[in-house]
Amino acid sequence: MSAPPSPAFARAWRLSAILVLGFASGLPLALTGQAMQAWLTVDGVDLATIGFFGLVGVPYTFKFLWAPLMDRFEPPWLGRRRGWLALTQLALAALLWWMASLSPTATPGLFAIAAVAIAFLSASQDVVVDAYRTDLLPEAERGLGASVHVFAYRLAMILSGGIALIWAGQWASWPRVYETMALIMAACAVVSLLALPRVSAALKPLDSDPRRELLGFAAMLAGVAAGYWSARQALILLGLDPNDANRWIQLLFVMAEIALALPLAGWAARRAGFETLNRSLSSYFAQQGAAAFLALIILYKLGDAFAGSLTTPFLIKGMGFSQEEVGIANKVIGIWLTILGAFIGGLIMTRLALYRSLLLFGVLQLVSNFGFYLLAELGKGAWGAVMVPAFDWGFVAIDTPAALDWLLLTVIAGENISGGMGTVAFVALLMGLCNQRFTATHYAMLSAFAAVGRIYVSPLSGVLSQSIGWPAFFLFSIVVAVPGVVMVWWLRDALARLGRPQTDGMVDD
């Protein structure tokens, strides 16, 4: 038998795996978010409709409902984690290629379906990436692992959310951009198949009846459909029209449908005996302060979610910046600053406890939103501009020097550095709340609650910004950031007690 790898090599291999998977996890997000918003904006789609397109990300908030299947079932030969990674990544590559063939104006229905399907698979990939990372890293490496994950995640967003805008402007073709992203995702799948280290999970999947599990999942889906239909019919009986031109009425239908679908899905899963979901949720809620932690997870980045939900339309349509300017400032320079913030946050967390880190970074996130209000009030060119020389890096180039707005760069710097710092502490919090027997389901549920703000504020943001204007909208984003900071202070003792995840033993995946 060959000698086991040295501890240093094993650690480097683990962190390299986190790097690759963080990149694969971050790549699709902008392609159904900021990059898609840019595509819709330049194609002439109105602002409120772009806001409603934010709902294609709804799967991110429901992913814990099917995460138990990824904890319970194991694709043959590859293992429970690596198998699901390869399958979701290959499917994402195929769907991105299909979306590239569609038009948001000529075939809006199919375009929306493709975007929802990509979001579903991206959320599913995130379930496995988060579980793999939590299973793979020992507790001592989790702070560093969170920084590496954020670095790679944001690096992917530089590509799909920043360089993509530059390519789209230079190529005059968003479809070509999405085809390129599909090929990159396929390459990530190859790495997942061939190069990832095996992981240890806390326990084997539950020894439950697989047919009963699938029946429980089907019942849960039926509960979702019943909740959607019941809420819709109730509002129609009250005399409301789902196709009303009033965007607030449309928003009411969407929110009511989602609000009723989720509890009915949970009730159906319990009645039908969806054991992995039921036991994993019971395991989480058995811990002290479980519900309060969920409230903290929703509120902590709510202000960031409002400020960032329509950043691209705000900068392109509201402020008059070009796609290339937004791509360079917000999606390339800005995301590098997020990476810098993530590393600064990781270093600070080696000195400060989780509670103090969350409190400090939460205050900085709140203050950074004031920059968008300042930009909306003062406008483009208020602080002058700096010239960026022409460059050619092979994969991206600018043929002529470009002017970048100083105020825009300042706002982007503050928002992204503070956001990166907050994200590192936030990821560490989520990992600390997981029981490793149900890692996929627990992390999926926690990160789903974290996505509530990012997904559900999008349609509200579109309607609200049209109703009250950009300056008042960004002031509102500052106000809604306050409860998250207050929740951190209120839970200071519980955060100080937060220990390592529960574990009952170790077996090979």
Automatic annotation (TrEMBL):
Parts of the chain that traverse the membrane: 12-31, 37-62, 83-100, 106-129, 150-169, 181-201, 213-231, 251-269, 290-316, 328-350, 357-376, 406-431, 443-464, 470-491
InterPro entries: AmpG_permease/AT-1 (IPR004752), MFS (IPR011701), MFS_trans_sf (IPR036259)
Gene3D superfamilies in alphabetical order: MFS general substrate transporter like domains
Subcellular location: Membrane
Alphabetic keyword roster: Endonuclease, Hydrolase, Membrane, Nuclease, Transmembrane, Transmembrane helix, Transport
GO MF: endonuclease activity; transmembrane transporter activity
Membrane topology qualifier: Multi-pass membrane protein
GO cellular component, one term: membrane
Main localisation: membrane
Name of the protein in question: HNH endonuclease
Source organism per UniProt: Thauera aminoaromatica S2
